[in-house]
Design goal:
This protein is of the alpha/beta class. It contains five helices and six strands. A six-stranded parallel β-sheet has the order 3-2-1-4-5-6. The protein is globular and about 45 Å long. The N and C termini lie close together (12 Å).
């Protein structure tokens, strides 16, 4: 439904699936495999796939740590958005990239659940997008040493509250990898 006019398409947004971001992440291999499946399905259904890559003082652009994980391959024709903030829209051209292909609905996967995923789904929602979080295709590293809950609980809580998110004229939801559709 989206509040964005004349933007009926749905895109897959893959956030920060980079070597050092997900190197020790919870259920890393399962999440990478699920995202690979989503990418394949989006391509088969003709949906845009947009890749997002974070860089900062610790995650240096162009370094091996910064590269996308080797199991996931971005096609040259697929857009790559570079970001320096948690919200993939802040200080980037993501909104115009999506407008160029008439996207008003997002399917979101990637890392990290408690940072860039949360920031981006909220950022997209407040900008008028319909936002579906793929519940088994996002992850994070363990931050219990800094007082955070165990990663499994962080993921479960994010999935719980996002399925109940509401605002006028847009929808939010959580689904599994196997239930994602980019055409319906």
């Amino acid at each position: 439904m989206s509040t964005l006019e004349n933007r009926p398409a749905t895109a897959l947004i893959v956030i920060d699936m980079q070597n050092d971001v997900v190197g020790g992440a919870f259920r890393r291999d399962e999440v990478v495999a699920n995202i690979g499946s989503l990418v394949d399905r989006a391509r088969a259904e003709g949906a845009p796939v947009v890749w997002v890559q974070h860089s900062d003082d610790e995650l240096v652009r162009g370094s091996e740590a910064w590269q996308l994980v080797p199991e996931l391959t971005r096609l040259e024709s697929e857009r790559l958005v570079h970001k320096s903030y948690g919200d993939s829209f802040e200080g980037t051209d993501l909104d115009s990239v999506l407008a160029d292909v008439a996207v008003g609905a997002l399917v979101v996967a990637g890392a990290e659940t408690d940072a860039c995923i949360r920031s981006t789904i909220h950022g997209a929602f407040t900008r008028g997008y319909d936002v579906t979080l793929v519940g088994d295709a996002h992850t994070a590293g363990d931050k219990t040493a800094w007082g955070a809950p165990p990663t499994e609980a962080v993921i479960a809580h994010t999935n719980l509250y996002w399925q109940h998110q509401a605002a006028p004229g847009r929808t939010a939801g959580v689904t599994s990898t196997e239930d994602v559709s980019f055409t319906g």
